[in-house]
Specification:
flat; three-stranded antiparallel sheet; 357 residues; alpha+beta; 8 helices
Length: 357
């Protein structure tokens, strides 16, 4: 038996062992049972595929024997069945290999989304606002909670920068490849000559960090309050509701003035700060692990241009995987964004599989 089949058999044995431990639940405390239950659930997808694989392999043995028949009709049918089964087995094997790839521990987390207007003046701010709407509509389609944490306007309908919390199962897994420079090519509404302008916006997607992920000492924080600027009504001139938090050891600074309440602004700022510090640590570890390999989609650098949205041609092109789709309206309303995300995930999985060969 090859090492791959041995590994699959050991996974099935471990799955059954976990099942037996769960059935003997009177000898475990609730926390132990919860741990076993999660392990059982995590193994279920791959064990289902392994069972399916072994079943198909048994069918292949039977079809191979039938293909030796003296009856020409039976032989022809069996040979056709052998070809079909071999193709199905190859597909299942590939699916199992993908399921066995090391998991990103942050995949199941929510995410902090940050969008900043780049080059292109007012048009860049309008495009940044369009991207924020795109991700908000995509979140709604997936049943995720979308909460704006910070929103800095630069004009009617345009934004300088914005951040949002997106909560739900597997949010980071779906959005983590969106980080980078997004470029737009279109004719601005203010452009009388009809000339196409090129503008950019930068997107960053950070895994949402909890207190258990990263501990921040109060003594390491400098918290400043000040009066909010911009739109907001009379309270702007009366209360120091805006909050700026500096994490002294790393120099990370977060400022939030979105809410009228200083307490709410502080809570939002801490949420963003935790995510930023956690992401910095995460990136250090990732760079250390991937120093001698290139299995990620693109470089992961936020300065990397990853996608172009060309409105006159109605196309969106992702430069990392050479994918172009002519359905810009459906991508911008979030309904076709999965077509890009699915391909990015497939590419990333294929690259990681190469690294295991």
């Amino acid at each position: 038996m090859d090492s791959f089949r041995e590994k699959l058999n050991s996974i099935l044995e471990h799955y059954e062992a976990v099942r037996e431990k769960m059935n003997a639940q009177e000898s475990f405390d609730p926390s132990e049972y919860a741990k076993l239950s999660k392990e059982f659930s995590d193994l279920e997808a791959v064990t289902n595929e392994i069972t399916k694989l072994f079943s198909k392999e048994n069918e292949l043995k039977e079809a191979t024997e039938l293909a030796k028949s003296d009856d020409k009709d039976i032989q022809d049918m069996a040979e056709e069945e052998v070809l079909t089964l071999k193709s199905e087995i190859a597909e299942i094997e590939n699916k199992i290999r993908i399921l066995l790839l090391p998991k990103d521990i942050d995949d199941e987390k929510g995410a902090i989304l940050e969008i900043r207007a780049g080059t292109g003046g007012e048009e860049a701010g309008l495009f940044a606002a369009d991207l924020l709407r795109m991700y908000e509509m995509y979140a709604q389609l997936n049943g995720w909670k979308f909460e704006v944490l910070e929103f800095s306007e630069s004009g009617i309908g345009a934004i300088k920068e914005a951040s949002a919390s997106i909560s739900g199962k597997g949010v980071f897994a779906r959005l983590k490849f969106e980080s980078g420079v997004h470029r737009v090519q279109r004719v601005p509404e203010t452009e009388a000559s009809g000339r196409i302008h090129t503008s950019t916006a930068t997107v960053a997607v950070l895994p949402e960090a909890e207190d258990v992920d990263i501990h921040i000492e109060d003594k390491d924080l400098q918290i400043d309050t000040y009066r909010a600027s911009g739109a907001g009504g009379q309270h702007v001139n009366k209360t120091d509701s805006a909050v700026r938090i500096t994490h002294i050891p790393t120099g990370t600074v977060v400022a939030v003035q979105d809410e009228r309440s200083q307490y709410k602004n502080k809570a939002k700022a801490m949420k963003i700060l935790r995510a930023k510090i956690y992401e910095n640590e995460r990136m250090k570890q990732e760079l250390a692990r991937s120093a001698d390999r290139k299995t990620q989609v693109g470089t992961g650098d936020r300065s990397e241009r990853i996608r172009t949205y060309n409105f006159p041609q109605g196309r969106v092109s992702d430069h990392r995987i050479n994918l172009t789709l002519y359905k810009i309206d459906k991508i911008m309303d979030g309904s076709a964004l999965d077509e890009i995300i699915d391909k990015l995930i497939e590419y990333d999985q294929a690259e990681k599989l190469k690294g295991t060969e």
